[in-house]
Structure prediction request, 519 residues.
Amino acid sequence: MSAPGGGRSGPAEWGGFEDNMQGGGSAVIDMENMDDTSGSSFEDMGEMHQRMKEEEEEEDGEFLGMKGLQGQLGRQVADQMWQVGKRQASKAFSLYANIDILRPYFDVEPVQVRTRLLESMVPVKMINFPQKIAGELYGPLMLVFTLVAILLHGMKTSDTIIREGTLMGTAIGTCFGYWLGVSSFIYFLAYLCNAQITMVQMLSLLGYGLFGHCITLLVTYNIHFHSLFYIFWLVVGGLSTLRMVAVLVSRTVGHTQRLILCGTLAALHMLFLLYLHFAYHKVVEGILDTLEGPNMPPFQRVARDIPVVSNAVLNTTAKANAMTL
Amino acid sequence: MRVSCWRSLPTCGLQSTLFQLRDLKAVGKKFVHVMYPKKSSALLRDWDLWGPLVLCVSLALMLQGGSADSKEDGGPQFAEVFVIIWFGAVVITLNSKLLGGTISFFQSLCVLGYCVLPLTVAMLVCRLVLLAGSGTVSFIIRLIVVIAMFAWSTLASTAFLADSQPPHRKALVVYPIFLFYFVISWMILTFTPQ
Prediction:
Protein backbone atom coordinates (compact mmCIF):
# COMPACT_ATOMS: atom_id res chain seq x y z
CA MET A 1 0.00 0.00 0.00
CA SER A 2 2.00 2.84 -1.23
CA ALA A 3 -0.65 5.51 -1.40
CA PRO A 4 -1.13 6.17 2.31
CA GLY A 5 2.51 6.73 2.79
CA GLY A 6 2.84 8.80 -0.31
CA GLY A 7 2.82 12.21 1.21
CA ARG A 8 4.98 11.29 4.13
CA SER A 9 7.44 8.77 2.88
CA GLY A 10 9.09 11.33 0.71
CA PRO A 11 10.29 11.13 -2.80
CA ALA A 12 11.05 7.43 -2.80
CA GLU A 13 8.26 6.43 -5.12
CA TRP A 14 7.14 9.65 -6.57
CA GLY A 15 10.36 10.85 -8.05
CA GLY A 16 8.63 11.67 -11.29
CA PHE A 17 6.13 13.95 -9.63
CA GLU A 18 8.80 15.57 -7.53
CA ASP A 19 10.29 17.16 -10.61
CA ASN A 20 6.92 18.58 -11.52
CA MET A 21 6.23 19.91 -8.07
CA GLN A 22 9.26 22.05 -7.97
CA GLY A 23 7.54 24.49 -10.22
CA GLY A 24 5.44 25.58 -7.23
CA GLY A 25 1.85 26.39 -8.04
CA SER A 26 2.29 25.32 -11.61
CA ALA A 27 2.52 21.64 -10.74
CA VAL A 28 -1.20 21.14 -11.23
CA ILE A 29 -0.98 22.70 -14.62
CA ASP A 30 1.76 20.31 -15.43
CA MET A 31 -0.46 17.42 -14.51
CA GLU A 32 -3.13 18.72 -16.80
CA ASN A 33 -0.78 18.27 -19.63
CA MET A 34 0.04 14.72 -18.81
CA ASP A 35 -1.34 12.16 -21.07
CA ASP A 36 -4.23 10.39 -19.50
CA THR A 37 -7.26 8.82 -21.03
CA SER A 38 -9.95 9.27 -18.38
CA GLY A 39 -10.93 12.57 -16.87
CA SER A 40 -11.89 11.23 -13.46
CA SER A 41 -8.46 9.99 -12.73
CA PHE A 42 -7.14 13.46 -13.49
CA GLU A 43 -9.43 14.90 -10.85
CA ASP A 44 -8.35 12.28 -8.42
CA MET A 45 -4.80 13.10 -9.17
CA GLY A 46 -5.35 16.76 -8.71
CA GLU A 47 -7.10 16.17 -5.40
CA MET A 48 -4.45 13.80 -4.18
CA HIS A 49 -1.75 16.12 -5.25
CA GLN A 50 -3.34 19.00 -3.39
CA ARG A 51 -3.68 16.89 -0.30
CA MET A 52 -0.10 15.80 -0.57
CA LYS A 53 1.01 19.35 -0.92
CA GLU A 54 -0.96 20.40 2.11
CA GLU A 55 0.64 17.66 4.09
CA GLU A 56 4.01 18.78 2.88
CA GLU A 57 3.23 22.30 3.90
CA GLU A 58 2.34 21.12 7.34
CA GLU A 59 5.58 19.30 7.66
CA ASP A 60 7.98 21.74 6.08
CA GLY A 61 6.34 25.03 6.85
CA GLU A 62 8.30 26.58 4.08
CA PHE A 63 6.13 26.26 1.05
CA LEU A 64 3.93 29.26 0.51
CA GLY A 65 1.82 30.40 -2.31
CA MET A 66 -1.77 30.48 -3.53
CA LYS A 67 -2.46 27.00 -2.32
CA GLY A 68 -1.06 27.89 1.09
CA LEU A 69 -3.71 30.52 1.80
CA GLN A 70 -6.60 28.23 0.93
CA GLY A 71 -5.19 25.48 3.03
CA GLN A 72 -4.73 27.78 5.99
CA LEU A 73 -8.29 29.03 5.86
CA GLY A 74 -9.63 25.53 5.65
CA ARG A 75 -7.50 24.48 8.55
CA GLN A 76 -8.66 27.37 10.67
CA VAL A 77 -12.29 26.60 10.03
CA ALA A 78 -11.77 22.97 10.86
CA ASP A 79 -9.90 23.95 13.98
CA GLN A 80 -12.66 26.23 15.16
CA MET A 81 -15.30 23.60 14.59
CA TRP A 82 -13.25 21.13 16.55
CA GLN A 83 -12.87 23.55 19.46
CA VAL A 84 -16.55 24.32 19.59
CA GLY A 85 -17.47 20.67 19.39
CA LYS A 86 -15.00 19.79 22.08
CA ARG A 87 -16.31 22.52 24.38
CA GLN A 88 -19.87 21.37 23.99
CA ALA A 89 -18.98 17.74 24.52
CA SER A 90 -16.99 18.46 27.66
CA LYS A 91 -19.79 20.59 29.04
CA ALA A 92 -22.29 17.80 28.53
CA PHE A 93 -19.88 15.28 29.95
CA SER A 94 -19.16 17.28 33.09
CA LEU A 95 -22.85 17.82 33.61
CA TYR A 96 -24.02 14.25 33.32
CA ALA A 97 -20.98 12.31 34.32
CA ASN A 98 -20.07 14.20 37.44
CA ILE A 99 -18.64 11.51 39.61
CA ASP A 100 -17.28 13.98 42.09
CA ILE A 101 -20.40 13.64 44.23
CA LEU A 102 -19.30 10.09 44.96
CA ARG A 103 -15.70 10.99 45.66
CA PRO A 104 -16.03 11.48 49.46
CA TYR A 105 -17.43 7.97 49.80
CA PHE A 106 -14.32 6.45 48.27
CA ASP A 107 -11.86 8.34 50.40
CA VAL A 108 -10.44 5.37 52.25
CA GLU A 109 -7.12 3.71 53.02
CA PRO A 110 -6.41 -0.01 52.70
CA VAL A 111 -5.78 -0.25 56.43
CA GLN A 112 -9.19 1.20 57.14
CA VAL A 113 -10.86 -1.24 54.78
CA ARG A 114 -9.12 -4.16 56.46
CA THR A 115 -10.11 -2.92 59.92
CA ARG A 116 -13.71 -2.49 58.90
CA LEU A 117 -13.82 -5.93 57.34
CA LEU A 118 -12.62 -7.51 60.56
CA GLU A 119 -14.91 -5.36 62.67
CA SER A 120 -17.92 -6.43 60.67
CA MET A 121 -17.64 -9.82 62.32
CA VAL A 122 -17.42 -8.47 65.85
CA PRO A 123 -20.69 -7.47 67.50
CA VAL A 124 -20.45 -4.33 69.57
CA LYS A 125 -21.35 -4.55 73.22
CA MET A 126 -22.35 -0.98 73.89
CA ILE A 127 -25.81 -0.37 72.59
CA ASN A 128 -26.70 2.54 74.80
CA PHE A 129 -25.32 5.24 72.58
CA PRO A 130 -25.26 5.38 68.79
CA GLN A 131 -22.41 3.46 67.25
CA LYS A 132 -20.41 5.09 64.52
CA ILE A 133 -20.95 3.79 60.99
CA ALA A 134 -18.47 4.82 58.34
CA GLY A 135 -20.26 6.10 55.28
CA GLU A 136 -17.96 4.49 52.83
CA LEU A 137 -18.86 2.73 49.61
CA TYR A 138 -15.61 1.24 48.38
CA GLY A 139 -15.58 -1.73 50.75
CA PRO A 140 -19.24 -2.67 50.22
CA LEU A 141 -18.95 -2.35 46.44
CA MET A 142 -15.89 -4.57 46.33
CA LEU A 143 -17.58 -7.09 48.61
CA VAL A 144 -20.60 -7.27 46.32
CA PHE A 145 -18.36 -7.86 43.31
CA THR A 146 -16.44 -10.49 45.26
CA LEU A 147 -19.71 -12.21 46.11
CA VAL A 148 -20.58 -12.24 42.40
CA ALA A 149 -17.22 -13.80 41.61
CA ILE A 150 -17.67 -16.42 44.34
CA LEU A 151 -21.13 -17.29 43.03
CA LEU A 152 -19.71 -17.76 39.55
CA HIS A 153 -16.96 -19.94 40.96
CA GLY A 154 -19.59 -21.94 42.81
CA MET A 155 -21.45 -22.50 39.59
CA LYS A 156 -18.27 -23.79 38.03
CA THR A 157 -17.71 -26.35 40.76
CA SER A 158 -21.28 -27.52 40.41
CA ASP A 159 -20.68 -28.05 36.72
CA THR A 160 -22.92 -25.55 35.17
CA ILE A 161 -21.34 -25.18 31.82
CA ILE A 162 -24.42 -24.28 29.89
CA ARG A 163 -25.63 -20.77 29.39
CA GLU A 164 -22.82 -18.97 31.15
CA GLY A 165 -24.17 -15.64 30.10
CA THR A 166 -27.54 -16.01 31.74
CA LEU A 167 -26.05 -17.31 34.93
CA MET A 168 -23.65 -14.41 35.10
CA GLY A 169 -26.50 -11.99 34.70
CA THR A 170 -28.37 -13.82 37.43
CA ALA A 171 -25.39 -13.66 39.78
CA ILE A 172 -24.88 -9.94 39.27
CA GLY A 173 -28.58 -9.27 39.54
CA THR A 174 -28.94 -11.29 42.72
CA CYS A 175 -26.05 -9.69 44.56
CA PHE A 176 -26.70 -6.12 43.56
CA GLY A 177 -30.41 -6.58 43.97
CA TYR A 178 -29.93 -7.80 47.50
CA TRP A 179 -27.51 -5.07 48.45
CA LEU A 180 -29.49 -2.19 47.01
CA GLY A 181 -32.97 -3.58 47.58
CA VAL A 182 -32.61 -4.71 51.14
CA SER A 183 -30.71 -1.56 52.06
CA SER A 184 -33.53 0.55 50.70
CA PHE A 185 -36.15 -1.53 52.45
CA ILE A 186 -34.40 -1.40 55.81
CA TYR A 187 -33.82 2.32 55.35
CA PHE A 188 -37.53 2.72 54.76
CA LEU A 189 -38.29 0.70 57.90
CA ALA A 190 -35.73 2.74 59.80
CA TYR A 191 -37.51 5.86 58.67
CA LEU A 192 -40.77 4.43 59.99
CA CYS A 193 -39.17 3.33 63.24
CA ASN A 194 -37.32 6.60 63.77
CA ALA A 195 -33.88 5.10 63.66
CA GLN A 196 -30.96 7.43 63.11
CA ILE A 197 -29.32 6.15 60.03
CA THR A 198 -28.73 7.56 56.57
CA MET A 199 -28.98 5.70 53.29
CA VAL A 200 -25.24 5.66 52.68
CA GLN A 201 -24.64 4.33 56.18
CA MET A 202 -27.20 1.59 55.59
CA LEU A 203 -25.58 0.65 52.30
CA SER A 204 -22.22 0.58 54.01
CA LEU A 205 -23.48 -1.50 56.95
CA LEU A 206 -25.20 -4.08 54.81
CA GLY A 207 -22.30 -4.18 52.38
CA TYR A 208 -19.82 -4.99 55.08
CA GLY A 209 -22.28 -7.55 56.42
CA LEU A 210 -21.80 -9.45 53.16
CA PHE A 211 -18.26 -10.24 54.24
CA GLY A 212 -19.54 -13.13 56.32
CA HIS A 213 -21.52 -14.41 53.33
CA CYS A 214 -18.41 -14.27 51.15
CA ILE A 215 -16.36 -16.30 53.61
CA THR A 216 -19.10 -18.88 54.13
CA LEU A 217 -19.77 -19.39 50.45
CA LEU A 218 -16.10 -19.49 49.55
CA VAL A 219 -15.53 -22.31 52.02
CA THR A 220 -18.71 -24.29 51.45
CA TYR A 221 -18.61 -24.14 47.66
CA ASN A 222 -15.30 -25.94 47.83
CA ILE A 223 -15.91 -28.31 50.72
CA HIS A 224 -19.27 -29.91 50.18
CA PHE A 225 -20.49 -30.90 53.63
CA HIS A 226 -23.86 -29.68 54.67
CA SER A 227 -23.11 -29.86 58.37
CA LEU A 228 -20.13 -27.62 57.72
CA PHE A 229 -22.38 -25.22 55.92
CA TYR A 230 -24.83 -25.11 58.81
CA ILE A 231 -22.03 -24.43 61.27
CA PHE A 232 -20.71 -21.60 59.10
CA TRP A 233 -24.20 -20.27 58.58
CA LEU A 234 -24.83 -20.05 62.27
CA VAL A 235 -21.43 -18.83 63.38
CA VAL A 236 -20.17 -16.60 60.61
CA GLY A 237 -23.52 -15.48 59.31
CA GLY A 238 -24.77 -15.06 62.83
CA LEU A 239 -21.82 -12.93 63.89
CA SER A 240 -22.16 -10.51 61.02
CA THR A 241 -25.91 -10.30 61.56
CA LEU A 242 -25.41 -9.66 65.25
CA ARG A 243 -23.01 -6.86 64.44
CA MET A 244 -25.50 -5.16 62.13
CA VAL A 245 -28.33 -5.69 64.58
CA ALA A 246 -26.34 -4.27 67.48
CA VAL A 247 -25.45 -1.16 65.52
CA LEU A 248 -29.06 -0.62 64.53
CA VAL A 249 -30.30 -1.21 68.08
CA SER A 250 -27.89 1.41 69.33
CA ARG A 251 -29.46 3.88 66.94
CA THR A 252 -33.11 3.11 67.60
CA VAL A 253 -35.28 4.04 70.53
CA GLY A 254 -38.18 1.94 71.74
CA HIS A 255 -38.54 -1.79 72.10
CA THR A 256 -41.11 -2.38 69.38
CA GLN A 257 -39.19 -0.41 66.85
CA ARG A 258 -35.97 -2.18 67.66
CA LEU A 259 -37.70 -5.51 67.37
CA ILE A 260 -39.24 -4.76 63.99
CA LEU A 261 -36.11 -3.32 62.46
CA CYS A 262 -33.63 -5.82 63.76
CA GLY A 263 -35.89 -8.81 63.31
CA THR A 264 -36.43 -7.96 59.67
CA LEU A 265 -32.77 -7.38 59.01
CA ALA A 266 -31.67 -10.56 60.78
CA ALA A 267 -34.25 -12.66 58.97
CA LEU A 268 -33.41 -11.26 55.55
CA HIS A 269 -29.67 -11.55 56.05
CA MET A 270 -29.67 -15.13 57.29
CA LEU A 271 -32.24 -16.26 54.76
CA PHE A 272 -30.19 -14.75 51.95
CA LEU A 273 -27.23 -16.89 52.88
CA LEU A 274 -29.45 -19.97 52.93
CA TYR A 275 -30.87 -18.96 49.60
CA LEU A 276 -27.45 -18.52 48.04
CA HIS A 277 -26.31 -21.92 49.16
CA PHE A 278 -29.37 -24.00 48.39
CA ALA A 279 -31.81 -22.28 46.16
CA TYR A 280 -29.15 -20.85 43.92
CA HIS A 281 -28.14 -24.32 42.93
CA LYS A 282 -31.80 -24.99 42.36
CA VAL A 283 -32.09 -21.97 40.08
CA VAL A 284 -29.13 -23.31 38.17
CA GLU A 285 -30.61 -26.77 38.01
CA GLY A 286 -33.90 -25.27 36.90
CA ILE A 287 -32.13 -23.80 33.90
CA LEU A 288 -30.45 -27.12 33.23
CA ASP A 289 -33.84 -28.83 33.50
CA THR A 290 -35.38 -26.71 30.84
CA LEU A 291 -32.52 -27.48 28.54
CA GLU A 292 -32.07 -31.18 29.15
CA GLY A 293 -35.57 -32.31 29.95
CA PRO A 294 -36.87 -33.89 33.14
CA ASN A 295 -33.98 -36.33 33.52
CA MET A 296 -32.38 -34.58 36.45
CA PRO A 297 -33.73 -35.43 39.88
CA PRO A 298 -34.50 -32.24 41.74
CA PHE A 299 -32.32 -30.72 44.40
CA GLN A 300 -29.25 -32.89 44.23
CA ARG A 301 -27.06 -32.52 47.28
CA VAL A 302 -23.39 -33.12 47.82
CA ALA A 303 -22.45 -36.19 45.80
CA ARG A 304 -24.57 -35.80 42.73
CA ASP A 305 -25.82 -38.85 40.96
CA ILE A 306 -25.05 -38.21 37.38
CA PRO A 307 -28.22 -38.83 35.41
CA VAL A 308 -28.25 -40.11 31.90
CA VAL A 309 -26.99 -37.21 29.91
CA SER A 310 -24.57 -36.74 27.09
CA ASN A 311 -21.02 -37.95 27.35
CA ALA A 312 -19.59 -34.50 27.16
CA VAL A 313 -21.35 -33.42 30.30
CA LEU A 314 -20.34 -36.65 32.02
CA ASN A 315 -16.70 -36.15 31.17
CA THR A 316 -16.71 -32.55 32.26
CA THR A 317 -18.38 -33.44 35.52
CA ALA A 318 -15.89 -36.21 36.18
CA LYS A 319 -12.90 -34.05 35.59
CA ALA A 320 -14.26 -31.13 37.58
CA ASN A 321 -14.95 -33.44 40.49
CA ALA A 322 -11.44 -34.78 40.22
CA MET A 323 -10.12 -31.25 40.43
CA THR A 324 -12.16 -30.28 43.47
CA LEU A 325 -11.21 -33.36 45.46
CA MET B 1 2.69 4.29 -15.65
CA ARG B 2 2.76 6.18 -12.41
CA VAL B 3 -0.46 7.89 -13.32
CA SER B 4 -2.28 4.63 -13.67
CA CYS B 5 -1.00 3.60 -10.25
CA TRP B 6 -3.32 6.13 -8.66
CA ARG B 7 -6.37 4.62 -10.22
CA SER B 8 -5.57 1.07 -9.32
CA LEU B 9 -5.45 1.76 -5.58
CA PRO B 10 -8.97 1.58 -4.15
CA THR B 11 -8.17 3.37 -0.92
CA CYS B 12 -6.43 6.36 -2.34
CA GLY B 13 -9.46 8.56 -1.89
CA LEU B 14 -10.07 7.46 1.66
CA GLN B 15 -6.66 7.30 3.20
CA SER B 16 -7.09 10.14 5.65
CA THR B 17 -10.47 9.09 7.02
CA LEU B 18 -10.07 5.40 7.78
CA PHE B 19 -7.79 3.27 9.86
CA GLN B 20 -4.30 3.88 8.56
CA LEU B 21 -1.19 1.82 8.50
CA ARG B 22 0.36 3.97 11.19
CA ASP B 23 -2.59 3.23 13.48
CA LEU B 24 -1.95 -0.45 12.92
CA LYS B 25 1.68 0.05 13.84
CA ALA B 26 0.66 1.92 17.00
CA VAL B 27 -1.69 -0.88 17.97
CA GLY B 28 1.01 -3.46 17.32
CA LYS B 29 3.47 -1.51 19.45
CA LYS B 30 1.00 -1.47 22.31
CA PHE B 31 0.48 -5.21 22.02
CA VAL B 32 4.22 -5.64 22.44
CA HIS B 33 4.16 -3.34 25.46
CA VAL B 34 1.49 -5.49 27.05
CA MET B 35 3.34 -8.73 26.46
CA TYR B 36 6.53 -7.24 27.93
CA PRO B 37 5.23 -4.82 30.51
CA LYS B 38 7.75 -2.19 31.41
CA LYS B 39 7.07 1.11 33.02
CA SER B 40 6.70 2.99 29.78
CA SER B 41 4.12 5.62 29.14
CA ALA B 42 3.53 4.74 25.52
CA LEU B 43 0.31 2.92 26.33
CA LEU B 44 -0.98 5.84 28.33
CA ARG B 45 0.14 8.74 26.22
CA ASP B 46 -1.32 7.70 22.88
CA TRP B 47 -4.37 5.84 23.94
CA ASP B 48 -6.68 4.28 21.40
CA LEU B 49 -9.54 1.84 21.60
CA TRP B 50 -8.92 -0.12 18.41
CA GLY B 51 -6.89 -2.78 20.15
CA PRO B 52 -9.38 -3.35 22.99
CA LEU B 53 -12.22 -3.54 20.48
CA VAL B 54 -10.45 -6.14 18.37
CA LEU B 55 -9.49 -8.17 21.44
CA CYS B 56 -12.96 -7.98 22.95
CA VAL B 57 -14.68 -8.99 19.72
CA SER B 58 -12.30 -11.88 19.08
CA LEU B 59 -12.63 -13.13 22.67
CA ALA B 60 -16.42 -12.90 22.52
CA LEU B 61 -16.46 -14.72 19.19
CA MET B 62 -14.23 -17.49 20.50
CA LEU B 63 -16.40 -17.87 23.59
CA GLN B 64 -19.48 -18.17 21.52
CA GLY B 65 -19.47 -21.81 20.64
CA GLY B 66 -19.86 -22.93 24.23
CA SER B 67 -23.61 -23.08 24.52
CA ALA B 68 -25.74 -26.16 24.30
CA ASP B 69 -28.36 -26.61 21.70
CA SER B 70 -29.99 -23.99 19.66
CA LYS B 71 -28.44 -21.26 17.64
CA GLU B 72 -30.10 -18.48 19.57
CA ASP B 73 -27.88 -19.18 22.57
CA GLY B 74 -24.94 -17.83 20.62
CA GLY B 75 -26.43 -14.38 20.34
CA PRO B 76 -26.85 -13.41 23.98
CA GLN B 77 -23.52 -14.93 24.87
CA PHE B 78 -21.61 -12.62 22.55
CA ALA B 79 -23.47 -9.64 23.92
CA GLU B 80 -22.97 -10.76 27.51
CA VAL B 81 -19.21 -11.12 27.13
CA PHE B 82 -18.98 -7.79 25.37
CA VAL B 83 -21.05 -6.03 28.02
CA ILE B 84 -19.21 -7.62 30.90
CA ILE B 85 -15.80 -6.64 29.56
CA TRP B 86 -16.72 -3.05 28.84
CA PHE B 87 -18.88 -2.61 31.93
CA GLY B 88 -16.15 -4.09 34.09
CA ALA B 89 -13.55 -1.81 32.54
CA VAL B 90 -15.76 1.23 33.10
CA VAL B 91 -16.35 0.30 36.73
CA ILE B 92 -12.65 -0.17 37.40
CA THR B 93 -11.89 3.14 35.71
CA LEU B 94 -14.50 4.97 37.77
CA ASN B 95 -13.19 3.32 40.90
CA SER B 96 -9.62 4.36 40.22
CA LYS B 97 -10.71 7.91 39.45
CA LEU B 98 -12.77 8.09 42.63
CA LEU B 99 -9.81 6.88 44.63
CA GLY B 100 -7.86 9.87 43.43
CA GLY B 101 -6.16 8.56 40.33
CA THR B 102 -4.56 10.94 37.88
CA ILE B 103 -5.27 8.87 34.85
CA SER B 104 -7.98 9.85 32.42
CA PHE B 105 -11.06 7.81 31.63
CA PHE B 106 -10.07 6.64 28.17
CA GLN B 107 -6.47 6.01 29.11
CA SER B 108 -7.61 3.59 31.75
CA LEU B 109 -10.06 1.91 29.39
CA CYS B 110 -7.24 1.60 26.87
CA VAL B 111 -4.89 -0.08 29.33
CA LEU B 112 -7.51 -2.49 30.66
CA GLY B 113 -8.61 -3.39 27.16
CA TYR B 114 -5.11 -4.03 25.91
CA CYS B 115 -4.27 -6.16 28.94
CA VAL B 116 -6.97 -8.62 27.87
CA LEU B 117 -4.47 -9.77 25.24
CA PRO B 118 -2.87 -12.54 27.36
CA LEU B 119 -6.32 -13.91 28.14
CA THR B 120 -7.24 -13.90 24.46
CA VAL B 121 -4.09 -15.89 23.81
CA ALA B 122 -5.15 -18.26 26.60
CA MET B 123 -8.56 -18.66 24.95
CA LEU B 124 -6.89 -19.54 21.68
CA VAL B 125 -4.68 -22.11 23.38
CA CYS B 126 -7.68 -23.56 25.23
CA ARG B 127 -9.61 -23.97 22.02
CA LEU B 128 -6.67 -25.72 20.42
CA VAL B 129 -6.24 -28.00 23.41
CA LEU B 130 -9.96 -28.79 23.38
CA LEU B 131 -9.66 -29.81 19.75
CA ALA B 132 -7.24 -32.49 20.88
CA GLY B 133 -9.56 -33.81 23.59
CA SER B 134 -11.36 -32.89 26.78
CA GLY B 135 -10.00 -35.20 29.46
CA THR B 136 -8.34 -34.48 32.77
CA VAL B 137 -4.97 -33.78 31.16
CA SER B 138 -6.44 -31.18 28.87
CA PHE B 139 -8.20 -29.59 31.83
CA ILE B 140 -4.94 -29.38 33.76
CA ILE B 141 -3.16 -27.84 30.78
CA ARG B 142 -5.96 -25.33 30.33
CA LEU B 143 -5.98 -24.53 34.02
CA ILE B 144 -2.24 -23.84 34.06
CA VAL B 145 -2.37 -21.74 30.90
CA VAL B 146 -5.35 -19.71 32.09
CA ILE B 147 -3.85 -19.09 35.51
CA ALA B 148 -0.55 -18.00 33.98
CA MET B 149 -2.21 -15.65 31.53
CA PHE B 150 -4.49 -14.28 34.24
CA ALA B 151 -1.47 -13.46 36.37
CA TRP B 152 0.22 -11.88 33.34
CA SER B 153 -2.82 -9.70 32.58
CA THR B 154 -3.15 -8.55 36.14
CA LEU B 155 0.54 -7.76 36.48
CA ALA B 156 0.63 -5.95 33.14
CA SER B 157 -2.32 -3.74 33.93
CA THR B 158 -1.03 -3.09 37.43
CA ALA B 159 2.31 -2.02 36.01
CA PHE B 160 0.57 0.61 33.93
CA LEU B 161 -2.20 1.74 36.23
CA ALA B 162 -0.79 1.60 39.70
CA ASP B 163 1.64 4.40 39.06
CA SER B 164 -1.13 6.88 38.55
CA GLN B 165 -2.52 6.29 42.03
CA PRO B 166 -1.41 7.72 45.33
CA PRO B 167 1.15 5.24 46.64
CA HIS B 168 -0.71 4.07 49.71
CA ARG B 169 -3.83 3.19 47.77
CA LYS B 170 -2.39 0.88 45.16
CA ALA B 171 -3.94 -2.20 46.76
CA LEU B 172 -7.39 -0.63 46.54
CA VAL B 173 -7.01 -0.22 42.79
CA VAL B 174 -5.39 -3.57 42.10
CA TYR B 175 -8.10 -5.64 43.77
CA PRO B 176 -10.96 -4.86 41.33
CA ILE B 177 -8.60 -5.43 38.42
CA PHE B 178 -7.82 -8.83 39.91
CA LEU B 179 -11.55 -9.62 40.19
CA PHE B 180 -12.23 -8.44 36.64
CA TYR B 181 -9.59 -10.65 35.08
CA PHE B 182 -10.64 -13.48 37.38
CA VAL B 183 -14.16 -13.39 35.97
CA ILE B 184 -12.85 -13.35 32.40
CA SER B 185 -10.51 -16.24 33.21
CA TRP B 186 -13.45 -18.11 34.69
CA MET B 187 -15.38 -17.64 31.46
CA ILE B 188 -12.43 -18.95 29.47
CA LEU B 189 -11.73 -21.92 31.71
CA THR B 190 -15.31 -23.13 31.81
CA PHE B 191 -15.72 -22.88 28.09
CA THR B 192 -16.67 -26.16 26.48
CA PRO B 193 -17.60 -26.38 22.85
CA GLN B 194 -20.70 -28.40 22.16
